[in-house]
Amino acid sequence: MIRAFAAIALPDSVLDALACAQAELPVSRPTPEDNLHLTLVFLGDVPEVSLEEVHLAFSAIRAAPFELVLSGMGVFGGRKPRLVYAGVDHSDPLIHLQAKLDRAARSAGIEVERRRFTPHVTLAYLNAKRDDPLRIERAVAAQAGFRTAPFRVEGFGLYQSELGKGGARYRELAYYAFSPSESAVPKA
Ligand code: ATP
Ligand code: MG
User: Which candidate, 28, 32, 36, 97, has a CA 20 to 30 Å from the CA of 9?
Assistant: First the structure.
């Protein structure tokens, strides 16, 4: 079985901005800069043959490049804060892309969770024993104005996640580039 997910990788300028923002958070387990990403679909543990099917289905996805802005910061988990995230400005192309991946994964036989897509970049997982929710809440509030410059999304990746003691390690298994012509107005 391979633990896998699809995600958008972030350009270096955005990674740097996120790392700066993370440095202001009093958290014990910030996401390593190399691991920062925007998850589109979590596939879970899938047999290798199913992953081949997913790869075929993802390969057939057509989309045009689009722009994204990361903005805002928040905490998921309500009274039991679980993670700190950077938000994403609303983007129709992102929503459409995610829906395409979701359909593709299902068509490949993967039982994708029916949770509503909430685009985010995980900045840190919280530890109930080691992290102080109040301090974190204050630090997050102080960075409510966090905002990156717009960046272009030119494709998405299929990743393997290997869970280990030092946290998860991701490996890109495949990359699916968008084609600009998808947005071109058909010529008469
Ligand atoms: P770790 O599990 O060591 O805390 P991680 O969460 O980054 O690290 P994975 O659990 O393999 O590593 O998750 C890979 C990606 O998929 C992450 O973006 C994670 O947020 C997302 N993810 C994991 N589990 C789920 C889930 N049940 N539903 C939706 N997304 C998930
Ligand atoms: Mg996890």
Answer: 28
- Cα(11)–Cα(173) distance, integer angstroms: 18
The candidate with the shortest Cα–Cα distance to 109, out of 44, 38, 176, is 44
Residue 122: domain span: 2-186
For a mutational test of ligand 1's pocket, the pick from 39, 43, 173, i.e. the residue with the most ligand atoms closer than 8 A to its C-beta, is 39
Give me the number of domains the chain comprises. 1
Rounded average pLDDT per 10-residue block, the chain, 188 residues:
98 98 97 98 98 98 98 95 97 98 98 96 96 97 98 98 94 96 66
φ, ψ for residue 114 (rounded to 5)?
-90, 25
Ligand (nearest to CA of 3)? 1
User: What CATH number does residue 60 fall under?
Assistant: 3.90.1140.10
